Amino acid sequence: SLRMILELNRLIRIAACVCQGKKMVYMTVNDSQQEDEDL
Per the database record, which ranges form the Transcriptional activator Zfx/Zfy domain (predicted)? Predict the structure, then answer.
């Protein structure tokens, strides 16, 4: 049904946002680790 498709689209969008957020956090952690190694 159309409602199920809309619900799936919403979940996919939320999942994509979460994945993007985790990726950004992961990259930020990597950057800070590299800075620590330089010290």
Answer: 20-39
Annotated domain spans of the chain: 1-26
pTM given for the model: 0.57
Q: What is the predicted pLDDT for the residue at 35?
A: 65
Angle at 19 between CA 23 and CA 3, to 5 degrees: 165
One-character DSSP codes across 1-39: -HHHHHHHHHHHHHHHHHHHHHHHHHHHHHHHHHHHHH-
